[in-house]
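Morning, I've got a small favour to ask if you have a moment. I'm working through a protein record and want to make sense of it properly. The fold is given in discrete form, as structure tokens running alongside the sequence. Can you walk me through what the tokens say about the fold? Thanks so much in advance, here it is:
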Amino acid sequence: MMKNDDFIRMNADEKNQLQLERLQSTLNRAYRNVPFHKKRFKEMGIDLSQIENLSNIARLPFMERQHISENYPYNLFAVPLRDIVRIHTAPGTTHNPTVSGYTPQDLANWQSILTRALQASEVTPHDILQITLNPGLANWGRDYKYGAEGIEASVIPHTRMSIEKKLMVLRDYKTSVLITTPSSALQLANYVRKNEININVFELKTLILIGEAVSEDDRRSLEKDLHVKIWTHYGLSEVPGPAIAFECKAHEGLHINEDHFLPEIVDPATGNVLPEGRFGELVLTTLTTRAFPLIRFKTGDKAKIVTQPCECKSGLSRIDWRGDRTDDLINIDGVKVHKKQIQLSIQSLLKLPSDASKFLIKQRDGKKYIEVWIPVNNAIFSDEIKELESLIQSAEKNLLENIGIPVAIRLKEKSMI
């Protein structure tokens, strides 16, 4: 297996050659072992032997989230189940959860990816690293644990706890690195400020934010309130995992792990590849994943390739990612959910014929949630409203359990929506 620095030390031609070889291997394995890919390639008359350079990938069809749902649970696996050593399940964006599998080699690659990202965030073997994430990102918590152990840092694994307990562990365990989401970090900072807690008694120095993009205003606020240096990582909550891209010490964009992923920026409307420097939809193809290859997967994340050289001189391409989307997915604390998925669930649970027609992202005590406004008919009487309110409480609980995101349902007059 290549070491992390081997790819970085290659010149441009050597990198392109390695990426091409890995792309060809991925495409051939997917064609042989995954009926979904074989059928689509045949229907489009694609001859894989003609994929002779990286730009030829534009001839291939896109892969979207609906394809993962339609092939639930194992039909996109490119290896037999006996070769799978870990299975991840995420809420997904339809009624079916997202299921991805990992071979021993896949897990070793992910540890390498996480190790590179953590080292770029100046994490060392002397650090004590604490992981605090939304339950929907529990799989990421395991990945970061293995990545930190790969550089022999001490790790406090992901465990659900109250904000008071988080602070107690941060203080008493002498945590120096905290991995969490921007929303959770802001909630923590609000609590520290509100309760006038002396942050100087903590040894926290590094905050790694994942799951969501962080605005410059929030970054400055967190650095001031928590006395930390902030780094951001980019990943996919569905598949295959975190730290696909990461910040270096320059903090000018996120470096893509190009030895494992081939990035493209496309026009979300036409699918055409856009020139470097233009914002569009980020499309990713896995180059080393054996169990669950993604071929031109449309992430729905808006980004652009940064063309200027980076002062860290790593040679890895960078993306500018600010959290904007090209689709109707909502990102709450790192977990993505489709508006239509919430809408259909509410209609089914409440037995209402009308569509939920307004979605708002709100915060309570620094914690994000989705508020959904449902239009109600003026003819509904008070006793029916009481019954609806009881159903709403059950529906909110059901949605939290199934999609991992808090949802507040509000009945509104149609004229207000």
Summary: The chain is about 35% helix and 25% strand. The first helix runs from residue 4 to 9. The chain has two domains: 1-325, 335-416. The mean pLDDT is 91.
